[in-house]
Amino acid sequence: MNSLNNNPKRVAVIGASGYGGIQSIRLLENHPSFEVSFLGGFNTIGKKWNELCPFLPLKNNPIVQKVDPDKIAESSDFVLLSLPNGLSNELIPELFKRNLRVVDLSADFRYRSLEKWKEIYKNVPKSLNRKDYKLCEEAVYGVPEIYSNAISKARLVASPGCFPTSSILPLMPFLKQGIIETDGIIIDSKSGTSGGGRVPKEHLLLAESSESICAYSVIGHRHTSEIEQELSSFSGMNIQLQFTPHLIPMVRGILSTIYVRLRDPGLTAEDCRTVLQTVYQNYKTIEILPVGKYPSTKWVRYTNRVMIGIELDIRTGRLILVSAIDNLIKGQSGQAIQSLNIMAGFPDYMGLPLATYYP
Question: For the whole prediction, is pTM greater than 0.70?
Answer without folding.
Answer: yes
